[in-house]
Amino acid sequence: MNPKSRAFILQAEALQNYFAEIYGSSAIGNYYLKSVIAAFSDGESGARAYYWSTFWAPTNFVLPIKNLSSAYQKQISVKKISAIANNTVETFLLEDFDIITVELFEPNSMAYDTMLKSATDLFWFCLPAAFDLYAKPGNNRTLTLLNPKKSFYQWRLRVPSECVVRLVVVTSYDVVPGSCATHRLSAYDFLLPLQNKIITRWCGMSGAWKPPFIHLTSSSNVMLVTFSLDRRQRSNILKAYFQAIPKIVCGGWYVSWNGSIISPYYPSYYPPNIDCHWVIRAPLPGYRLMLKIIVIQIQEQSPGSKKCDKDWLAIDGVRYCKAIAEENRVKEYGYSISISFHSDELVTHRGFYIEFRAFSHTDPCPRQFKCSDRSCVPLNSKCDGWNDCTDGSDEVDCAHKRCLPHSYKCLNGKCPKKLNPECDGIRDCEDGFDETNCACGRSQITKFRIVGGEESRPGKWPWQASLQLGTSGHICGASVISNRWLVSAAHCFQDSEFIRYSIASGWTAYMGIKSINKYHNNQAVMRSIKRIIVHPNYDRYVSDYDIALLEMEAPVFFTELVQPVCLLSSPRVFIYGTVCYVTGWGAVEENSQLTKTLQEAKVKIINQSVCNKLYDHLITSQMLCAGNLNGGTDACQGDSGGPLACLGRGNRWYLTGIVSWGEGCARRNRPGVYTKVTAFYEWIHHYIN
What we know:
This protein is mostly beta strands. The protein has five helices and 38 strands.
């Protein structure tokens, strides 16, 4: 409800008069000054009011007044209030009164005047920069702040009473999560900025460039977001959205061979004020349970405290509330395990992710595949075309497997025994289909800045294209896949507040070039874009299905400098650790300018499960990771949409990935995340054929 609206003012005045009557006639009436109604929200059976009451009393009266004030509040928890103004009567049902705080001041204290001034500054001076937003289930409401004019903003977020608020911060330059004295961005589990209701806050420091970097969840149907600025610069940007999601009941009783236990709403921040309890049992007597704590990010104990007194995770009675060393994350338990989780009202974090599996010393991987290194993977990972075991043992002796979901199929529907038969110079299909469409992936250079990369030679990557938009110049990269089609990342074509990136006619593709500002020569190829096809399942908030096709106005003629890259018709096994190349004109270091000449960087495919843990399980089956876990080599801003090419059989280059996202550029344990092209082979050919 808008605090300036007639309905709000009427209801607030009626409640304030009601409180004055109740408290004024009570035992603490001589000390009562005023009550201030700050906000309303939906309750399960009526409206919920947020207010504070102010008392002026000697110090020795503090505790009695607090107790009596709370007692009166409980007595009036449900009440019909009538607001009368201009001979109009409005009646509404108050379901609950949320006491914000009880301010107490001694006689002749200067603190009283200071409090009143602060309250006035906060709730009246800031009202022009306050926004009230409401979201129904299934709808996303956005919070956007560009080129701000004021020094303080706040958003009061509300959803239906049966739901909670999920906030996703998509982009916020110059802020990172943390504890700080001068914060820029804060979220509260309330409709007013109370210190004891902070979910989390961000400080004024250099942040990550790739969203989303945080998800928050409230404990009820409201949340307050505030944003303060210490300077008026264009870099002060906030882009976020919130949605109504169902309340969950955490905990449960499980009897299973393997599975996982996660904190509520993981990988979103868990909500405040929640308690969960799980019991896990092995399916058969004689088996024990092995637990591995993959992630634990919980509010740590108070300074000086020797135990977890705030938020905690308890496993068989042992409490945890801080990071655990890698060697201590795996532990063997008995036949049954009890797990509990508690969060208080203040400050939340990402939470925890625990994997468990039943085992016995005679059967270490029950109902799972045992890798050669004695690790366990699901049975359906065997011979699925991808190395789920770090040693690749799940893809050994798979020649007898025919026509699996990811098998290569000939035109006659049969599947060769060879794992990857196409374009290897040997005819494996009776119809020779495996050796057709092989005029791709040939580089004219046989010898072999992207961050940590080096300048590329002309013609070395002839499928690389630069996508440029009007006077803005280079925006994204792309790959040539046929004489009329390019493939790029879907996020390159999402409209902003000022630029329509989704309009095909504004884009031009430049091919056969090395420098993005020296393409006016006889060898450069330039084509206008006729059509942009973004994958229908693209999710811009989590970067899933991040792929788009671009149809050129006219076909191109292939030369030494312009060639198509090969596409994989089945998930060719590029073993984890395989060396590939990422190319583009992106920044050569984080937060720097684009480079003018095409850069190349050698990167390695990274195990999917390893990358998923590094990115808190944000990696989907449509993504893959590549880079260097020690940092130093990576794609960066401006490389988006460009190719990750790997050398396959017959010395052909295959488009394995599309530059999609990553946290920062070339950071340690933050590899680049790419769209997995093999997952979209049929979708691509549906259009380009």
